[in-house]
Amino acid sequence: MAYNLSFARKVYKNAEMGHWIKMCMQCGVCSGSCPLGPLGAWEFGPREIFQRVRAGKEEEILGSGAMWMCTSCYNCIVRCPRGLPITHIVHGLARYAVETGKVKPTQPTARFATKVFWNNIVKTGRVGEAALSMHLYFIDGIGTGISNVLEMKDVALGMLKSKRLNPIPFRGKIKGYDGFKKMLDKAFELEKK
Amino acid sequence: MKEYSFYPGCSSEKMASAANMENSVHHMCEILGIKLKEIDDWNCCSASIGYAGGGQLPRMALTARNFALSQAQSPGKDVVATCAACWLALRETQERIEEEPVVKAQLDTVLKEANLTYDGHLKPRHMVEVLIEDVGWDQLKAKVKKPLKGLKVAGYVGCQTNRPFGVCGDNFEDPQYLDRMIEATGATAVPFPKKVACCGGALAFSENENACKLIKEILQSAVDNGAEAIVTPCPVCQLNVEVYQGKVNKMFNTRFNIPVLYYSQLFVLAWGGSWEQAALNQQVVPATALQRFA
Questions:
Q1: B132: in domain
Q2: Residue A15 and residue A40 in one domain
Q3: Is the CB of B44 inside 8 Å of chain A's CB atoms?
Q4: Which of B1, B18, B9 minimizes the C-alpha distance to B38?
Q5: Domain coverage including residue B84
Q6: Chain B within 8 Å of A190 (Cβ-Cβ)?
Q7: How many CB pairs under 8 A join A and B?
Q8: In B, which residues are within 8 Å of A73 by CB distance?
């Protein structure tokens, strides 16, 4: 694969931990350590992602589901012989795909992480597990929502019975919510610069 | 009485998914004479998938607020987390504050918006580190009143309590601390090749079938090695490996029905606590194998 650093330069500058990709020697220990590898869940492991970044495959990488298969198990990070923060680089690329709008809107983990999970936190300051699950199950409308709920009914009943699920899906905001929100707004503003 | 600042995290709230951990940890610390002073008005750490919705600064801002509150409410006290992801967020943010002056300066600016400050000197700890380093193995063993003799347990360390920071210098590929904890209660830690394998984490929500394939391997390994229960320190491991057993059974035509517990539940029971104090009444898969010790 021929080098074309046009995309890589953007990644080095704009993606969290992206500059570390320069150091990758393509040994493949990261890809070989990924728990999702043997399941055939991704088209590229970290090694392949990094080489494609260096080959200028911008659309292919940012539109790919590969980064979104990261479970954050940190196997790759502790095994990388060069000590690269592989997990964080992959997360950084995933975030960069969101920022640039190149992520596919139907990518399940991207959608869950940004539309459901992050919004859930920002709304009150803490995760509301019941609201989180309901939002996710009904994300494609009422029809699939009901079938999702039916599929999860045994789990939900078990959780309710063991008092590990609050039947009231709404929660109040943390006391310092105004300051919390201002902090986040400021953090996003600084990050944009 | 030794006192710590305590960051329980969202899953340890009342009627949340790790309420069984929270309840048993509470009683475990009571028996040990440890006071956990909860950080008042803490917020979510954004867990392992927060990176997608927030970049590095918004993500670290969440944790910086928790540090700032802890510093104001319990000056100088170590910040103890029981949740793997909470602990990881604390460790990562603390490390970057210490090592990257730019990050520290940015977080100072961000904290000012909420009239908060953090001088950057608190020490994040995991509850298992407190048990091993501050309480010590001798005490953990000396507290045993009802040895869980004959109980065969698979010690499932999982990912984030192990990687990338590790616990008490244990190695990443075959950490020993959890097996030692199991043995400290009088139970037997069975060989468990999936000890540090991933349960799928947050992908159990968005890639459920893939996560169930990983969970199946973990369950299979525990059962094949004769375990009657799986024990873990991680709330996501506990939840995924416990509540998806029904789904796994449907997918693979298997019959898994093995309780998945927290180390704190084993300790409370072995130290003479009741079934309820050990929160063993809060299991989705009933902890039948432990009934003989109740």
A1: no
A2: yes
A3: yes
A4: B9
A5: 2-127
A6: yes
A7: 209
A8: 159-160, 163, 198, 201
DSSP state of B7: E
At residue B80, the pLDDT reads: 98
Interface of A with B in 17-56 (CB under 8 A): 35-36, 39, 41
- The verdict on B208 touching A (C-beta cutoff 8 Å) is no
Q: Which two tokens stand for residue B22?
A: 């929270």
Structural domain ending residue among the three candidates A76, A99, A122: A99
Laid out side by side, the sheet with B79-81 consists of: B34-38, B2-7, B79-81, B124-126
The list of chain A residues with pLDDT below 70 reads: none
**Contact (CB<8Å) A127/B197:** no
Distance CA B276, CA B237 (A): 22
Long-range contacts, stretch A47-55, CB < 8 angstroms, 24+ apart: A49/A90, A49/A93, A50/A21, A50/A24, A50/A26, A50/A89, A51/A1, A51/A24, A51/A26, A52/A1, A53/A7, A53/A8, A53/A11, A53/A21, A53/A93, A54/A3, A54/A4, A54/A5, A54/A8, A54/A21, A55/A1, A55/A2, A55/A3, A55/A4
**Closest partner residue to A154 among B246, B281, B282, by Cβ?**
B246
The number of domains in chain A is: 2
B75, B105, B127 — which closes off a domain?
B127
> ipTM of the assembly?
0.96
B102 CB within 8 Å of a chain A CB: no
Say what the pLDDT of residue A44 is: 97
Same domain, A14 and A71: yes
Spatial distance between the Cα atoms of A83 and B174, rounded to a whole number of angstroms? 19
- Tens of pLDDT along A20-59? 999 999 999 999 999 999 999 999 999 999 999 999 999 9
Q: Which own/partner pairs from A103-106 qualify as long-range (CB within 8 Å, at least 24 positions apart)?
A: A103/A62, A103/A63, A104/A63, A104/A65
Query: Could you give the 3-state DSSP secondary structure of residue A54?
Result: helix
Write the residue in A87, A176, A187 that is nearest to B58 by C-beta: A187
pLDDT at B95: 97
pLDDT of A13: 96
Judge if the upstream peptide bond of residue B101 is cis by omega within 30 degrees of 0.
no
Residue whose C-alpha is closest to residue B127's, from B54, B28, B210: B28
